[in-house]
């Protein structure tokens, strides 16, 4: 079963299943900084107008919980924080609310959001799910999504983050936009850019600038629809002899020694 068939199968299986009941069984007793995770998750989904397909409802929640836990860990470190790949603002709103529970005066200062706000860049062959033969001896890569998919306006995310007025927005394509970031140490880096080239470029930029104990978490390490995010991570880490963990959620995490 290829990845597209797998997602369609899960969508079909979950279409008549008691998803809410299972969701609450799994997450009702989880909390972060004294905040009930189910309430936090659902509030951020609603406020950011984010939806999730039934095929990945549990994976999405587990990824959000893991993200929030690593972000919470990073709050004890000196350094700035960044999210690369913002989409509708769900993840950054969630982690900002965790930060607010840590510091009631938090306004978003030292948080940087990096996104093209124009959707995906052009995928390359390392992002392909596979290949199909279009002519004898001629293969064409197959992608789950094309250039421009997931486009969300900057204004939408600014509205979602209005309670955190000191957040810095960096609009542009990776890696060029990374040059607009301040020359600082980074305590937390969230990479959710789906594709090979921007994933690799993020690691090239942030790993040398990560503070001791700093975290980089990649949402797309084992994404069934975006294999390039994992390929870029593996290639960079192998080249630089970096040791990391892979979570059951499909995320990968590097903590700088």
Describe what this molecule looks like in 3D.
With 257 residues, the protein is an alpha/beta fold. The protein has eight helices and eleven strands. The strands form three sheets. It has a seven-stranded mixed beta sheet, sandwiched between helices. Strands 1-2 form a two-stranded antiparallel ribbon. A two-stranded antiparallel ribbon has the order 5-6. Helix 3 crosses helix 5 and helix 7 runs parallel beside helix 8. The N and C termini lie far apart (39 Å). The mean pLDDT is 96.
Q: What strand line-up does the widest sheet have?
A: 7-4-3-8-9-11-10
β-sheet strand percentage: 15-25%
Compressed to H and E, one letter per element, the order equals HHEEHHEHEEEHEEHEHEE
**Rg from alpha-carbon coordinates:** 18 Å
Q: Report the helical percentage.
A: 25-40%
What is the structural class? alpha/beta
Q: Biggest β-sheet: count, sense, barrel?
A: 7 strands, mixed
The best one-word shape is globular
Number of helices: 8
SSE blueprint and pairings:
Elements: H1 3-14, H2 19-27, E1 31-32, E2 35-36, H3 37-48, H4 57-74, E3 80-84, H5 90-102, E4 111-115, E5 130-135, E6 138-142, H6 154-160, E7 168-171, E8 186-191, H7 196-206, E9 210-218, H8 227-239, E10 245-246, E11 252-255
Parallel strand pairs: 3-4, 3-8, 4-7, 8-9
Antiparallel strand pairs: 1-2, 5-6, 9-11, 10-11
Helix pairs in contact: 3-5, 4-5, 7-8
């Amino acid at each position: 079963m290829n990845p597209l068939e797998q997602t369609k199968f899960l969508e079909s299986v979950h279409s008549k299943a008691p998803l809410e009941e299972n969701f609450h069984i799994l997450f009702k007793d989880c909390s972060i900084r004294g905040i009930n995770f189910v309430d936090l998750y659902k509030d951020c989904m609603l406020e950011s107008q984010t939806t999730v397909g039934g095929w990945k409802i549990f994976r999405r929640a587990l990824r959000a919980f893991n993200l929030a836990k690593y972000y919470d860990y990073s709050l004890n470190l000196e350094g700035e924080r960044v999210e690369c790949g913002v989409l509708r603002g769900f993840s950054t709103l969630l982690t900002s609310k965790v930060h607010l529970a840590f510091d009631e005066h938090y306004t978003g200062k030292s948080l940087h959001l990096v996104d093209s706000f124009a959707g995906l860049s052009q995928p390359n062959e390392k992002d392909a799910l596979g290949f199909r033969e279009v002519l004898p001896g001629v293969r064409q890569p197959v992608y789950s999504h094309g250039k421009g998919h997931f486009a969300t306006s900057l204004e939408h995310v600014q509205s979602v983050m209005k309670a955190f007025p000191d957040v810095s927005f960096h609009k542009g394509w990776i890696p060029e936009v990374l040059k607009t970031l301040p020359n600082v140490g980074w305590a937390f880096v969230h990479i959710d850019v789906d594709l090979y080239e921007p994933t690799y470029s993020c690691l090239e930029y942030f790993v040398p600038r990560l503070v001791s104990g700093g975290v980089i978490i990649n949402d797309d390490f084992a994404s069934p629809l975006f294999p390039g995010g994992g390929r870029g991570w593996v290639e960079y880490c192998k080249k630089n002899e970096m040791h990391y963990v892979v979570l059951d959620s499909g995320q990968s995490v590097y903590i700088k020694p």
